[in-house]
Amino acid sequence: MALRPRSNPFAILTALLLVLFLTTLAFNLLTAQRIPTAPGGVDVHAATELLLKVLGGIILLVLLYAGFARIVRRDSSPSTGFVKDNVFLDVVGRLRDKEHELERLRSAAEERAREIESYNENILRSVSSGVITFNRESVVTTFNDAAGRILRFNRADVIGKTCGEVFGANSTVAGLLNRCLSTGEAITREEFELYLPHGERIWIGVSTTLLKDREGRLMGTTFVCTDLTEIKALQEQVEMRERMTVLGQMSAGIAHEFRNLMGTILGAVKLIARQTPPDSPVHESIQTVTHVISDMDHLITQFLNFARKTDPDLKPVDMGPWLKRVVEQVLEQVPPPHPHVEVTCFPDVPRIRIDEVLMRQALGNLVQNAVEAMPGGGRLTVSAGLRPPLGRRREVEVRVIDSGAGIPQDRLGKIFLPFFTTKPKGTGLGLALVHKIVLLHNGRIDVESQERKGTTFRISLPIA
Ligand SMILES: Nc1ncnc2c1ncn2[C@@H]1O[C@H](COP(=O)(O)OP(=O)(O)O)[C@@H](O)[C@H]1O
Ligand SMILES: [Mg+2]
């Protein structure tokens, strides 16, 4: 810090007084010899003598004060002037400068802390993984936006609550945190199904670590989660596709064998018929056998159609008009009574690439099942809309909703299996074929149903 130039008021004052004193002294000596005092006038000599005494007194006082001030300041450094510089003012000035400097540093540090905090917050806000931190008492201290999205919670509803209050004391999350705290070991990429308090079921992948400060003291735990629900669904679809391919290949082989054997039976039956007299009652039995064999042949043909390897012929299709046309065509072939039908397509749905023939078959099967589930009439809604994006994957969702009998929960897992049917004349191949066609389009299908309320089938098709 630069020193300010030092002015010394005592030295200047004393110098001035000395000059005045010497001038007065010279004047006094001169007047004593040359200027006679006029009768009745002022005695100049006596006046200058008095002035000299006063000036001498003042000089003495100034010198005494300067000496006193020096002692009080206890400054032993050699003086540059008559009295020491104004050290006190200087020190005060320096202290003020220091104070300003400290203030500047403090606000710079605060600004930096704010920057770091908002930087951290921005990172937490931007990451797609859910990040939750718990303190040592398992109270939620951080809950980023992604965690809210994945776990369907409001940040404000969970901050300050314990893990048990948010997820349940016996929940998998609480178990993971306890495990992490008790063993002190990080838990990486654990996958589990989570039942959210609102009743929803999701799949999440979780990593949990201990949260420590710089000195290594335990502050709590971090919980990082990613939503695996969609990935799991896709995984299931792929597994199902593989199973279906294997099943298709195996059963197609068996079906061909059956067909050959049935041909032999049919040939033998025809031979018996030819050798039997026309009025014999055996002809009735022969006819029954022939009918059963032709029904079986029909079934096998359908199954082979289903099991046959097909390459979809994909072409861009405008969903709105296409959907209307297909639903109308399908309903024409379904015997009445027809339900009340509504077909909608949201304007933001783009053209998607589908195999029109195959997709008509798929939609036709869903519409037919819906109509069959509402024998007394009801309401059928077919719609197309955009699904929320799944990562970079964008999808159009086609829904077929009926207000029919519904499907019991324990049956939902079986309806896509070939030959599963609850209808006396059903083949159980309709939904299996729908599933196959959807998979051929690299899409997904799921179903939601409530008994006596109705069923919703959702087909998600990728937008190329
Ligand atoms: N919309 C629906 N409402 C109620 N049950 C349905 C619906 N769609 C399908 N199902 C059930 O799924 C089974 C299998 O359907 P599907 O594969 O088309 O074979 P099918 O129609 O020949 O029985 C049906 O028998 C029925 O029990
Ligand atoms: Mg059917």
Structure description:
With 464 residues, the protein is of the alpha+beta class. It is 53% helix and 18% strand. The chain has helices at 9-34, 44-73, 87-126, 145-151, 155-158, 163-167, 172-183, 229-275, 282-307, 319-333, 356-372, 409-412, 430-440, and strands spanning 130-135, 140-143, 187-195, 201-212, 218-227, 315-317, 340-345, 352-354, 379-386, 395-402, 444-450, 454-462. It has a 5-stranded antiparallel β-sheet, with helices on both faces. Strands 7-9-10-12-11 form a 5-stranded mixed β-sheet. The radius of gyration is 50 Å and the shape is rod-shaped. Mean pLDDT is 85; it is low at 1-5 and 76-83. It binds adenosine-5'-diphosphate (ADP) and magnesium ion. Magnesium ion binds at residues 365, 368-369, 430.
List the helices and strands and how they pair.
Elements: H1 9-34, H2 44-73, H3 87-126, E1 130-135, E2 140-143, H4 145-151, H5 155-158, H6 163-167, H7 172-183, E3 187-195, E4 201-212, E5 218-227, H8 229-275, H9 282-307, E6 315-317, H10 319-333, E7 340-345, E8 352-354, H11 356-372, E9 379-386, E10 395-402, H12 409-412, H13 430-440, E11 444-450, E12 454-462
